[in-house]
């Protein structure tokens, strides 16, 4: 039989025997951790008292005298352990007084300072550094002096007692470190959870704001064009039926375009999936500005010029969308509020940014009504879009009158520096 063929069944039998036992012990320890501390400490005090009473249970094992006074001193080394977690240092002091008193009284002396081992472990685990060091030195010095006063103390007794006390103290320190490490891990996990929840809430708020801006831009633009055409239609319905028909066609086209874009946004909210791929169309970008300008000019009669300087280059997707929406909102404001006859859209490309400028020859600030209705969100949305991309926006009276909107949108590297 090969070594491997013998070893594998042996390991299987070992697992079959010891795995259930290990599971049972883990269950026992888990229940002990959840037990009330006073119950555990009372049981521990009873166990220490039982260990200290073995000299009375087996009196023939030694020649030391047995008295009730000695037994009461033994009780004094065990009972204070009930309060070792509530008042660890006071409990340690009580045990530290009774243990040497029992050794000096010698009726009988303690063979093993069980209570001392427990209080040294407890003090090392729960008490401040000064109390820990004081108690360790007290027990080491006290044990050494007690054994020196003993008539027939052997060298191995010194080594046994002192090593026992040092081991109990070291075990308490290790437990203290392990608890501190566990508490730090739990605190870090809670902080990460709070940060994750804050990031999620922040991302949700940003997404809601983005969707609100998109819906505002889409509806405001489409409704503005529809209102302009609806107002012009009845005027020419009798004198120029073809122009009236074109106006109603423009209304229908604007309505269909708005519905298509709204379905796209609602698809973001509903996360509609068709055959594992998104049913949403791509968001419009800079390439769609020419079509937007043409649609506004055709639907409203506003003459809109589009010009580009510099060398165009790809931008991040959200910057592309922001550029399109900024121009769309600026033209919508021109149609709704400026009463302008011409508008100009300029794209200025530089090495690190794209500057969009939309100007009109209508009523600027201080020359007639407001450029946006009271409580309007158009210019606010433009500033928010620019800021979200790491850029900036400015609006006000144009150099030659009318109204002017200027937005600077950084390229990828400049944007990261602006946001970072």
TrEMBL record:
Residues 320-412 form the Histidine kinase/HSP90-like ATPase domain. Residues 358-380 are annotated as: Disordered. One of its GO terms (molecular function) is phosphorelay sensor kinase activity. It catalyses: ATP + protein L-histidine = ADP + protein N-phospho-L-histidine. It is an enzyme of class 2 (transferase). GO terms for cellular component: membrane. Signal peptide: none annotated. Keywords: ATP-binding, Kinase, Membrane, Nucleotide-binding, Phosphoprotein, Transferase, Transmembrane, Transmembrane helix, Two-component regulatory system. Its EC number is 2.7.13.3. Residues 207-272 form the Signal transduction histidine kinase subgroup 3 dimerisation and phosphoacceptor domain. InterPro entries: DUF7134, HATPase_C_sf, HATPase_dom, Sensor_HK_TwoCompSys, Sig_transdc_His_kin_sub3_dim/P. Residues 33-179 form the DUF7134 domain. Residues 364-379 have a biased composition (Gly residues). The chain crosses the membrane at residues 38-59, 65-82, 111-127. This is histidine kinase. It comes from Streptomyces albiflavescens.
């Amino acid at each position: 039989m090969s070594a491997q063929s013998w070893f594998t069944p042996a390991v299987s039998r070992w697992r079959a025997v010891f795995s259930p036992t290990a599971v049972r012990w883990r269950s026992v320890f888990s229940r002990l951790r959840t037990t009330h501390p006073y119950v555990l400490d009372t049981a521990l005090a009873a166990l220490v008292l039982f260990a200290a009473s073995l000299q009375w249970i087996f009196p023939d094992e030694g020649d030391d005298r047995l008295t009730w006074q000695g037994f009461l001193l033994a009780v004094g080394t065990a009972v204070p352990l009930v309060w070792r977690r509530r008042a660890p240092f006071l409990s340690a002091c009580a045990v530290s007084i009774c243990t040497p008193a029992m050794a000096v009284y010698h009726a009988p002396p303690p063979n093993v300072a069980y209570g001392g081992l427990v209080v040294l472990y407890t003090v090392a685990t729960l008490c401040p550094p000064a109390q820990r060091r004081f108690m360790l030195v007290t027990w080491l010095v006290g044990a050494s002096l007690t054994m020196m006063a003993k008539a027939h103390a052997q060298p191995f007794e010194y080594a046994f007692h002192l090593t026992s006390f040092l081991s109990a103290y070291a075990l308490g320190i290790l437990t203290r470190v392990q608890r501190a490490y566990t508490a730090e891990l739990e605190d870090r996990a809670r902080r990460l959870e709070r940060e994750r929840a804050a990031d999620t809430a922040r991302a949700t708020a940003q997404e809601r704001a983005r969707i609100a801006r998109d819906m505002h831009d889409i509806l405001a633009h489409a409704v503005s064009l529809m209102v302009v055409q609806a107002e012009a239609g009845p005027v020419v319905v009798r004198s120029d039926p073809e122009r009236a028909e074109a106006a109603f066609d423009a209304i229908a086209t604007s309505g269909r375009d708005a519905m298509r874009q709204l379905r796209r946004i609602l698809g973001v909210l509903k996360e509609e999936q068709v055959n594992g791929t998104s049913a949403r169309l791509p968001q419009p970008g800079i390439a769609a500005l020419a079509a937007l300008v043409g649609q506004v000019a055709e639907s409203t009669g506003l003459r809109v010029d589009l010009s580009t300087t510099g060398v165009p280059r790809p931008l991040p997707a959200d910057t592309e969308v922001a550029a399109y929406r900024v121009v769309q909102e600026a033209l919508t404001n021109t149609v709704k509020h400026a009463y302008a006859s011409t508008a100009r859209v300029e794209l200025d490309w530089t090495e690190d940014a794209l500057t969009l400028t939309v100007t009109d020859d209508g009523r600027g600030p201080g020359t007639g009504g407001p450029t946006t209705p009271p409580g309007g969100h158009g210019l606010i949305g433009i500033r928010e879009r620019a800021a979200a991309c790491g850029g900036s926006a400015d609006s006000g009276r144009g150099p030659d009158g009318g109204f002017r909107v200027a937005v600077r949108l950084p390229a990828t590297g400049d944007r990261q520096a602006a946001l970072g």
